[in-house]
Design goal:
Length: 129
């Protein structure tokens, strides 16, 4: 970008140094062309600067989004851990086998069937552990 600025400045200096007669048609056109080039160089420089700022802004948003995603997936993971917490390990009163049952079932005081000996297990005694 600076190279365009310096090239235009060099060209401008060259026109000045040549002592171009600005009262001639050619001289006026040449002077106007150099002026337009100067304006364009300034404009391009400004756009380049704001482009850098926008890029930095996008990078910052990108980083924030990555953090949010990390947090989201962490919470998701904890959610599944909570799911595990909803189960309670109890021992079958008949065969002594370990049975995992949902806390909701215990809270309702429902009976369950032991998957090992197929006898009914009362869950009332395990309520609200
Ligand atoms: Zn059993």
């Amino acid at each position: 970008m600076n190279s365009i600025m310096s090239k235009v400045s060099y060209l401008s200096g060259l026109v000045d140094g040549l002592d171009v007669d600005k009262n001639t048609k050619e001289g006026r056109i040449l002077t106007e062309i150099v002026n337009v080039l100067k304006d364009m160089a300034v404009e391009i420089s400004d756009i380049s600067e704001s482009q850098k700022i926008v890029q930095e802004y996008i990078d910052a948003i990108d980083e924030d989004l990555a953090e949010l995603q990390e947090d989201f997936y962490d919470e998701d993971y904890e959610f599944y851990e909570d799911e595990d917490d909803n189960f309670v390990q109890i021992e079958c009163t008949a065969c002594g086998d370990s049975v995992y049952i949902d806390k909701d079932i215990i809270a309702k005081g429902e009976e369950i069937t032991c998957p090992n000996c197929h006898k009914k297990i009362a869950t009332k005694n395990y309520c609200c552990e």
